[in-house]
Design a protein that fits this description.
By secondary structure, this protein is of the alpha+beta class. The protein has a single domain, classed as Thiol Ester Dehydrase, Chain A, CATH 3.10.129.10. The chain has a six-stranded antiparallel β-sheet. The protein is built from four helices and six strands. It is 28% helix and 35% strand.
Length: 142
């Protein structure tokens, strides 16, 4: 994908990555949506892994809203705002787990947001083990 790191704070609270069009062009000449999805997928989870150590963290849900076709290099911009971080920390303190939602985007070289990323991340205790499949089926059936 030939991604270039433009900015990556040591704590992952701020991330800027460049995805070059030349290496990720679809047959129609625009940016390949699959490349954007692959790049966007781990960003929020990796940030939460750094900011909330000692937890298991993974992407629970990811969707991309392609509002405008990307016809230039695209810049992924992610920022974990202090207020959002406090809300997540509070939920972890109360419940021991959190499933926060994030919104970030891909911007073209003119600074226009072309793609909005919606990501939901699971943050669970280090010893978390999901319920067995049979347990889940019983809970939903009865």
């Amino acid at each position: 994908m030939h991604v270039r790191v433009l900015e990556l704070s040591a704590d992952w609270r701020r991330v800027r990555l460049r995805l070059p069009l030349a290496r990720n062009r679809n047959p129609g000449g625009g940016m390949f949506g699959g490349a954007m999805a692959c790049l966007a997928d781990p960003i929020a989870a990796l940030a939460c892994n750094r900011v909330f150590p000692g937890h298991q963290v993974w992407t629970r849900d990811l969707s991309l809203d392609f509002a405008r076709e990307g016809r230039s290099d695209m810049e992924l911009r992610f920022e974990l705002m202090a207020e959002h971080e406090r809300e997540i920390a509070h939920e972890l303190e109360l419940r021991g787990r959190a499933t926060p939602q994030f919104q970030y985007g891909f911007y073209d070289t003119r600074g226009r947001c072309c793609v909005t990323v919606h990501s939901r991340v699971a943050i669970r205790p280090a010893d978390y083990r999901p319920a067995a499949r049979d347990d889940l089926e019983q809970r939903t059936d009865g």
